[in-house]
């Protein structure tokens, strides 16, 4: 494969864009609501009317507004329809010629769409994720060609460093610095790992990207491998994502067939192979050293750091680990330049962030917004507030590792430093909205139950602490606690944060501490405000 062949494929595929196209969301959420049956019904109606030769019915990735699915869009008009059923097929086909259509339309001018800034999600809902030709048609793999033939590894790392991109897996570590560390670390072999072990309750960002645009992640991984000197990559994806796994497998096979992965990529001396490793449902394997142990065939448990994986990772070799969204940002940064990316967001948090917006919110779905946008803008404008119009009480960000932020702080900018300052974290991008009917003690207890079940048990603070905290929260919820129990809960939370081995135990107290800080009255109502704090 050379650049001319790549452009030939793109030109051929672009011819399809002159035809009318019906784009059917085929991501997991819409599939669960029957979108594939809608696609089949549309093809049947088009065949019966003699229009199938003129109209393409294309399964695409996530269109974002998941709670209104199944979703469908007609191109080139851009009309978008929601809550579509197979019975709507005749109306939709009639709409192609301007006929009457009673299927509910999405308002493309609504804040849910206009307030977003799609970078990672720019192809989602627009291309068929199971055809590499569709990805090539929108410019896919040209950046990899440019990198291999026109840039040195050091130049690639410099671009990523200057962009200010930080790891989107939660910790926010500078991506360029991590790449540079792996590149300069000595080792016979080096590895690149994509962490797709997304396990936070309410989170589906990485799953949606993998289902909707798998080649974007593969290309980002290949560029990273070129930059750090690796020839082998792994995607560690949770087994609960069968559709993502299937599309990744197809994408890897297609890329190998065209010579975009494997040996002598783009007729160069660069070799890079990607294999998939499927996780078995252990939340702790999202922690990078536990993930490495799992790939090696050992029990997925974290180990003390240092040494860090960048210096001694997979089989003791320097290993670059980034999550799905981080790799998916790479091509856009190189295409548009580091200054372009650095001018989006805030001083210390550059670019955009994908969030899975869930909970008591009208517009449940996947969004990508610039860093620095406020929680209020996300919840009230993009999210549309609560379904019944009741007041929003809080937003929980960062999954089991994050905190619950009250409505009084909704003017907080969404960036790494600002969220940390109010007792939460960015995390990988889960955002759960709670209304006035939500009991915050129940929320804290739910997340602690999750952490209790997911603790690997290696270190005592996490193994025992999560159980004890869950039992104490249950005691509070059942009205059996005293005021002194709240003091004990806080003390145990601090002990876990200071002494747990990995991020699971260190951050598990965050939902408890944040709810105690902002919603202490709800705890006190369950134990009696005059509870004994001295015993």
Note the topology.
Elements lengths: L2 H12 L5 E6 L2 H5 L2 H14 L6 E6 L11 E4 L3 E3 L7 H7 L15 H4 L17 H6 L4 H9 L2 H11 L11 H10 L6 E6 L8 H8 L1 H15 L3 E7 L3 H16 L15 E7 L8 H8 L23 E5 H5 L1 H7 L1 H5 L9 E8 L5 E6 L4 H8 L9 E6 L6 E3 L9 H6 L8 E6 L4 H15 L5 H18 L5 H17 L3 H5 L2 H9 L1 H8 L8
Parallel strand pairs: 1-2, 5-6, 5-8, 6-7, 9-13
Antiparallel strand pairs: 1-3, 3-4, 9-10, 11-12, 11-13
Helix pairs in contact: 3-4, 7-11, 8-9, 8-11, 10-12, 19-20, 19-23, 20-21, 21-23, 23-24
Description:
- The chain is α/β, with parallel strands linked by helices and 535 residues long.
- The chain has 4 domains: 93 residues, Glutaredoxin, CATH 3.40.30.10; 203 residues, Rossmann fold, CATH 3.40.50; 87 residues, Roll (Ubiquitin-like (UB roll)); 87 residues, NADH-ubiquinone oxidoreductase 51kDa subunit, iron-sulphur binding domain (de novo design (two linked rop proteins), Up-down Bundle), CATH 1.20.1440.
- 43% of the residues lie in helices and 14% in strands.
- It is built from 24 helices and 13 strands.
- The protein has a 5-stranded mixed sheet. Strands 2-1-3-4 form a 4-stranded mixed sheet, covered by helices on one side. A 4-stranded parallel sheet has the order 7-6-5-8, sandwiched between helices.
- Strand 9 and strand 10 form a beta hairpin.
- The radius of gyration is 24 Å and the shape is globular.
- The relative contact order is 0.10.
- The mean pLDDT is 94.
- GO terms for molecular function: 4 iron, 4 sulfur cluster binding; FMN binding; metal ion binding; NADH dehydrogenase (ubiquinone) activity; oxidoreductase activity.
- Belongs to the complex I 51 kDa subunit family.
């Amino acid at each position: 494969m050379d650049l001319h062949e790549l452009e030939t494929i793109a030109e051929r595929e672009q011819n399809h864009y002159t035809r009318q196209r019906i784009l059917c969301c085929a991501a997991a959420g819409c599939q669960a609501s029957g979108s594939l049956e809608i696609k089949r019904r549309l093809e049947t109606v088009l065949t019966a009317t003699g229009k199938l030769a003129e109209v393409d019915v294309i399964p695409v990735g996530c269109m974002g507004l998941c709670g209104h699915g199944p979703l469908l869009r007609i191109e080139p008009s851009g009309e978008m329809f929601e809550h579509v059923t197979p019975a709507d097929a005749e109306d939709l086909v009639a709409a192609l010629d301007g006929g009457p259509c009673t299927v509910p339309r999405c308002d493309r001018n609504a804040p849910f769409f206009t307030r977003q800034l799609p970078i990672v999600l720019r192809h989602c809902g627009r291309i068929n994720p199971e055809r590499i030709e569709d990805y090539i048609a929108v410019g896919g793999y040209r950046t990899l060609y440019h990198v291999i033939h026109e840039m040195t590894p050091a130049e690639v790392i410099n671009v990523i460093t200057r962009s200010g991109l930080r790891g989107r897996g939660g910790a926010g570590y500078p991506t360029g610095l991590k790449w540079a560390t792996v590149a300069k670390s000595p080792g016979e072999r080096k590895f690149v790992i994509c962490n797709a072990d997304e396990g936070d309750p309410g989170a589906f960002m990485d799953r949606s990207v993998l289902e909707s645009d798998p080649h974007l992640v593969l290309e980002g991984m290949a560029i990273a491998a070129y930059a750090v000197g690796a020839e082998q990559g792994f995607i560690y994806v949770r087994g609960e994502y069968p559709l993502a796994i299937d599309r990744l497998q197809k994408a890897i096979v297609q890329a190998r067939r065209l010579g975009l992965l494997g040996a002598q990529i783009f007729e160069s001396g660069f070799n890079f192979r990607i294999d998939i490793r499927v996780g078995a449902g252990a939340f702790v394997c999202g922690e990078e050293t536990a993930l490495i142990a799992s790939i090696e065939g050992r029990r997925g448990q974290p180990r003390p750091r240092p040494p860090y994986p960048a210096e001694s990772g997979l089989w003791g070799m320097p290993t670059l680990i980034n999550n799905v969204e981080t790799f998916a940002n790479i091509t856009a940064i190189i295409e548009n330049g580091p200054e372009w990316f650095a001018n989006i967001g805030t001083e210390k948090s550059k670019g955009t962030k994908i969030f899975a917006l869930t909970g008591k919110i009208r517009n449940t779905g996947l969004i990508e917004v610039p860093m620095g946008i406020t929680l209020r803008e996300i919840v009230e404008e993009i999210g549309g507030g609560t379904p019944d119009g009741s007041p929003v009480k809080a937003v929980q960000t960062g999954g089991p590792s994050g905190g619950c932020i009250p409505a009084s702080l909704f003017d907080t900018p969404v960036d790494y430093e600002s969220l940390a300052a109010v007792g939460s974290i960015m995390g990988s991008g889960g955002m759960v909205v709670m209304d006035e009917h939500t009991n915050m003690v129940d929320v804290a207890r739910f997340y602690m139950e999750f952490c209790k079940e997911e603790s690997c048990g290696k270190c005592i603070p996490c193994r025992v602490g999560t159980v004890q905290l869950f039992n104490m929260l249950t005691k509070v919820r059942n009205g059996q606690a005293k005021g002194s129990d709240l003091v004990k809960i806080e003390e145990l939370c601090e002990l876990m944060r200071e002494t747990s081995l990995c991020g699971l135990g260190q951050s598990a107290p965050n939902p408890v501490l944040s709810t105690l800080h902002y919603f202490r009255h709800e705890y006190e109502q369950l134990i009696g405000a005059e509870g004994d704090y001295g015993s």
